[in-house]
Amino acid sequence: MSQPDARHAPLAQIPPGIACARDYELLCEHFIPAPTLAYLAGGAGHDRTRDANLAAFDDWTIWPRLLRDVTHGHTRLALAGAELSHPFLLAPVAFQKLVHPGAETETARAAAALGACLVASTLSSAPLEDIATANADGRRWFQLYFQPERAATQALARRAEAAGYEALVVTLDAAIRLPSLSALRAGFVMPADCAAGNLQTLAASAEAFPAAPPGQSRIFQGAMRAAPGWADLDWLRSETRLPVWVKGVLHPDDAADCRARGIAGVIVSNHGGRALDGAPASLAALPGVRAAVGADYPLLFDGGIRSGGDAFKALALGANAVLVGRLQVWALSVAGALGVAHVLKLLREELEACMAQAGCATLADIGPHCLAAAHEPLAAVRAIPPHPCGPAD
Amino acid sequence: MSQPDARHAPLAQIPPGIACARDYELLCEHFIPAPTLAYLAGGAGHDRTRDANLAAFDDWTIWPRLLRDVTHGHTRLALAGAELSHPFLLAPVAFQKLVHPGAETETARAAAALGACLVASTLSSAPLEDIATANADGRRWFQLYFQPERAATQALARRAEAAGYEALVVTLDAAIRLPSLSALRAGFVMPADCAAGNLQTLAASAEAFPAAPPGQSRIFQGAMRAAPGWADLDWLRSETRLPVWVKGVLHPDDAADCRARGIAGVIVSNHGGRALDGAPASLAALPGVRAAVGADYPLLFDGGIRSGGDAFKALALGANAVLVGRLQVWALSVAGALGVAHVLKLLREELEACMAQAGCATLADIGPHCLAAAHEPLAAVRAIPPHPCGPAD
Amino acid sequence: MSQPDARHAPLAQIPPGIACARDYELLCEHFIPAPTLAYLAGGAGHDRTRDANLAAFDDWTIWPRLLRDVTHGHTRLALAGAELSHPFLLAPVAFQKLVHPGAETETARAAAALGACLVASTLSSAPLEDIATANADGRRWFQLYFQPERAATQALARRAEAAGYEALVVTLDAAIRLPSLSALRAGFVMPADCAAGNLQTLAASAEAFPAAPPGQSRIFQGAMRAAPGWADLDWLRSETRLPVWVKGVLHPDDAADCRARGIAGVIVSNHGGRALDGAPASLAALPGVRAAVGADYPLLFDGGIRSGGDAFKALALGANAVLVGRLQVWALSVAGALGVAHVLKLLREELEACMAQAGCATLADIGPHCLAAAHEPLAAVRAIPPHPCGPAD
Amino acid sequence: MSQPDARHAPLAQIPPGIACARDYELLCEHFIPAPTLAYLAGGAGHDRTRDANLAAFDDWTIWPRLLRDVTHGHTRLALAGAELSHPFLLAPVAFQKLVHPGAETETARAAAALGACLVASTLSSAPLEDIATANADGRRWFQLYFQPERAATQALARRAEAAGYEALVVTLDAAIRLPSLSALRAGFVMPADCAAGNLQTLAASAEAFPAAPPGQSRIFQGAMRAAPGWADLDWLRSETRLPVWVKGVLHPDDAADCRARGIAGVIVSNHGGRALDGAPASLAALPGVRAAVGADYPLLFDGGIRSGGDAFKALALGANAVLVGRLQVWALSVAGALGVAHVLKLLREELEACMAQAGCATLADIGPHCLAAAHEPLAAVRAIPPHPCGPAD
Q1: Do D220 and A72 count as a contact with CB atoms less than 8 A apart?
Q2: What whole-number percentage of chain D has pLDDT above 70?
Q3: Taking phi first (over 0 means left), then psi (-120 to 50 degrees means alpha), and beta for anything else, what does residue D357 get?
């Protein structure tokens, strides 16, 4: 049994020896108690989709290109009508007090410092107003879970508007969440003080099924009775002056529907493998979504980003920008705001290095032509002209 | 060497900490002596088909869908002219006294309680009449092995009719069964008191080859001389008022022949990998069988179901319902009828959760369009429109 | 370091507990000193082709078929104008005294007893005449390596004719053999008394490169100067009254050339992975060879047969019969002639069981239609009709 | 922690027991301190491209061919207007004093002795003039990194011309190099005395990013500002009488551009996986490059050659010759010039053996038709004629 108090407290400076963003994944196990780490790292069920998210990046390699002038290069992009200096957003991650006493306020300060758009979670440990204060100079969106009562949902939206959040991101893939087996087996229990930021009651029950009428299905007539529909989304759009995004899209038809219904943009995501164990990898779903929504629709990617090279692949396969979830939390656990800022800086620099090597000066230069399928030996060889090797005599 | 008596006796209640149906697979090794477990878990030969059964589910992922109203959802289906509340049947599993003194009567009670159609085995430890009594309020079919003499086969059919069984399921893939190497190596020996339910003589000889005339093949002129042919099947149909199903179908042509000859329905199965080591995975064979028999022919699936998500995939690939074999026995070993009822409840709820996430309110909504091939990175990317990423300036 | 004398001497009876032919592979390590086992089991170089030989069988699964009448079934075949009771030949394996003092005379007795055609090796420990004596009632062919001098080759052919061998099998893939790294590392040295059966000088030098003129290539102007050409093969055919086979064919064009030049038949083989490390798996090459030579040309398969199911797959992919090499030696090491006879019996029965389950009464019923590719999930699903699952209401 | 002084000093003779070129990979860990070995063996980042380089060879198998007369065989080739006795070049490898006090002068003597063209590195431990002296009778090219000032680049080119180097090889894939994680973790630090051969200042800073103007990107406005462009390459060609090659090409369009711009030839390479972690395997990129430049353009291969068989595959897929990097250094560490000469001899002999077995007498006989894709079971079987197996009666 791991002993929580044997872990290090978060550091006040960036530790030496970190060579790449992913190194925080190795470091964090010295800072996060094992049951908590199991909860945060775990996916739904047997972790199949979580693992597939990472493996999907290995299906692609990146073409290096030579002698391209990229001295005018940059990573700026226009997103939702404003400019970002780089395409890394901080994904909504709940209950950040689990790994750092400053919780989301640390993350929010890092986001502001590094120019990363912050997507704050409904399930934050800190109230959304405190997060906004810490992020005063930054860009921030609010991730919204529909509440059982519309009034509660509306109240959240109002608070987000008032606190300077610039968009609402409605997460739609979590109406039903089966528990993480690894968290269960590790004995994780949500501490009472971690989950009371924005809501009165919430706690660990977020992951249990609600009750259903006697003799009926806990799923269909229980959990899903509380799940939102298109009418709720239309209502929300009419109730707020903020643009409404949808997070949790995988199927191309759902993405096309979102566009048709006036949604501002979609985030391809499977909730980090924490929703449906057996869903496609985010990266595998991404190209189909881009094809469905067309070239000009705002499209973000979430699911398995561990390096700037991963971000490059997601951009090449159709994303305008990417969200970073678990790496954010690992860095937070190691060194608070400094850690999160550091991981963002590393990711950006890794992306720049990748772009430079691929001959891409701007994000607009990145596309499917920058990638090669990793496992297609036969395709190339069919084009070889006969007798390429000339003898000496 | 494992010590049988060091195992736990079956519990009188469901143990805590079970998070999913498959957890019974982990638990059961504390309740079943190792040689018996090797016998029950083992496949024929080197377990290739048994393992392929499970691996085949990883060839597919499930599309989550958003914002679908499934509050009217249910898992009811019409099968063989009657209604079932869910598509999980209990597969015929022989010799259940090996894991629980109550044997099949426990299973039968659980089936009745959970509304699962029970398929009782010819090789049950308990007589089929006792099973029927325990299952009085339930739905039950009888799995029939052709006996060396037609009279004996007829007697079994008569007893099944008299005891309220509603269909005969003839298993046709077990004329020759090579022993399970793992069972042999574990030193498994069938106890005398496990195998005397319906037949006078049977015991472990079920798995040995019968004798052949001197100088002739133990296979062709021995075992296969006793194997049934189409004429026997036609005879059986004429002798019984019950509908006759065939279990053990993999090849599409065999399935089409069954339909053409008046068989009520077929069960795609490779006997859990216990018949021909090297046969295709059940799930790999399923789509071809559905294509061969057409959309309206009753078709069940057996082979590797370990979760509601597995069932969802089998339904999507053409099955009307699925049979659960090994999980049934693992749950029986842990907690008797309660365990079997619990595993059925978990499976159903896992299926419902999967349906809800996939936007399917009823079984009729499930189809191949709900699945994505897990390993096709190139197919999707070819559809991406050019330059999806727009720069900031 | 393994201690040779700690091994068991060959048994005088078949040991208990053997459930399948391949079990001799597990048993033999108790009977063969580790360096010798490394030499016999090893392939050339890094064992890539040796391992690929086995892995190739997993590319295919076997369709079970139902209700076929195979009570007239048998495994007889006509090969080279005579009848064999089953399609298992004993492959030429050199230096059998390494594992049993009786060496090839044991093998020869087993072959005669089980009706297996024996292919005796030029490099046998026992003289070919002794082998013939032990095999008096059997069918036997002689595997011929071209000798540096035609007179020596002719002498071997004459002796084979005189001793009742019915065909000459010329092995053509061993002009250059790189040493087995595992044998080298295990410290294997050929004992002087193992390799003097038919030739005056031979010994371990069989695997070293011959000398070349100063400044020239040990390969091109050394080893390959001694390698036979078409003229040598034509000469051999003109010098002997026996049919001449070629062993070591993989490329379809070489097979077609053999047929065109009057060779009686070919054996698809890569020398058990002991010739060119990096050559295709035998089973992968087989279908192309069958397609090149046509349906009526005698074609044998060698390379990785470990079970009757493996033989079934080779027959389905184009072979008329198969050769068994390493299993033969493992069984010889365990129980001499009895062991070899036993492994032949097991293989035949495994093949019969496989045939019966696949609905094949005779070898002529076996073909590519009996196999399914193991890794093609998408092909089958495209044929599913829409909405196969019907709801209850 | 490994202890550098516990390693062996380089031997004065070839150690016994080396069976193939790759054995030097196993041996060298007894001669190179662990941190240095990590630095030399490591790739960029997580070693994905480095590992893919090796794995790509397993995508192909080599067809053995029978009865071909190759007694006139040789490995000579014409390259860049002169004759080489074999197609193995010594790749430019920096800082060879890390593994042997004689550094590149040892390598240069071996190259001369074995007739291997030496490609000396800008970053050699020994001055290029010393290398030339040691290689007086040999063929040598000079690998050139563009220096921050054209004058410095010009000076290097002049010195190379004066010292008898016959070509300049400009490496273009190393403008940005992320550090090797394994080297960092192993604690490798470049010794001061290893890296002062040709340049005044250099040292380990070769792998760090240069500075950028405040607020700008270390990549785009830092490292890439110093990176050469087409104009620099044109300038270099105009400044030197030597032919100019480009090393580091993977994309077919870059190769075609090189040809169009008057580059003498290109070297397909990903810097041994040390440049962009995630780039395609060299062997995977090779066929596309050959197809782009046509059959008659000089094309070399670099990336993962560990055996003569690997070289055969690269030649078959379009290369005229291959470069050997890491094996060169491993052999240097073990036995200095003798080791490097030995590994070249082994590689050549392994290639000859492979050619002889594949029926290729000269390099011109090697082509894509000599290879088979390793994983295509279905392609071949579709050609099988029906019923290949004839029964006996």
Answers
A1: yes
A2: 93
A3: alpha
Q: Quick count: other Cβ atoms within 10 Å of Cβ A118?
A: 28
Contact B40/B49 with Cβ under 8 angstroms?
no
A65 contacts in chain D (CB < 8 Å): 251, 254
> Where on the phi/psi map is residue C343: left (φ > 0), alpha (ψ -120 to 50), or beta?
alpha
B332: left (phi over 0), alpha (psi -120 to 50) or beta: alpha
CATH number of the domain enclosing B193: 3.20.20.70
- Residue A330 and residue A28 in contact, taking contact as beta carbons nearer than 8 Å: yes
Structural domain boundaries enclosing D237: 23-66+82-199+229-374
Looking at per-residue confidence, does D4 or B357 come out higher?
Answer: B357
Name the active-site residue from D30, D271, D342, D375: D271
Contact C391 B277 (CB under 8 A): no
Residues near D391 by Cβ (< 8 Å), separated by ≥ 6? C76, C77, C78, C362, C363, C364
User: How many residues are present in chain C?
Assistant: 393
Size of interface A-D (CB pairs under 8 A): 178
SS3 assignment, position D3:
coil
Instruction: Say if CB A341 and CB A325 are below 8 A apart.
Output: no
| Active site (annotated) includes residue C271 | yes
Q: Of C72, C49, C168, C111, nearest to C336 (Cα)?
A: C111
Residues D188, D195: Cα–Cα separation, whole Å: 14
Does B383 reside within a domain? no
Could you please report the per-residue DSSP string of D264-284?
Answer: SEEEE--GGGTS-TTPPPHHH
Spatial distance between the Cα atoms of A239 and A223, rounded to a whole number of angstroms: 25
Pick the closest to residue B95 from B305, B347, B340, B332 (CA basis). Answer: B332
User: Predicted confidence band at B376 (pLDDT cuts at 50, 70, 90)?
Assistant: confident
Instruction: Identify all chain B residues contacting C350, using CB atoms and an 8 Å cutoff.
Output: 178
- Chains near C with 3+ CB pairs less than 8 A apart are B, D
In a domain? residue B27: yes
> In terms of Cα–Cα distance, which of C74, C85, C143, C134 is closest to C110?
C134
Res D226 pLDDT > 60: yes
Helix axis angle, A104-114 to A326-357, nearest 10°: 20
Asked if residue A75 is part of any domain, the answer here is no
pLDDT tens for each residue of C305-351:
999 999 999 999 999 999 999 999 999 999 999 999 999 999 999 99
Count of structural domains, chain D = 1
Cα–Cα dist A216/A324, whole Å: 39
Distance CA A146, CA A175 (A): 10
Of residues B178, B233, B373, nearest to C377 (C-beta): B373
Q: Give the largest CA-CA distance in chain C.
A: 90
Q: Is residue B263 part of a domain?
A: yes
Backbone angles phi, psi at B82, to 5 degrees: -130, 165
**Structure tokens given for B5:** 């008596």
Q: Closest CB to A254: pick one of B65, B349, B393.
A: B65
Alpha helices in C47-143 (DSSP H): 48-55, 103-114, 128-134
- Measure in Å the smallest separation between the Cα of D329 and chain C Cα atoms: 22
Chain A's closest residue to D182, CA to CA, is A19
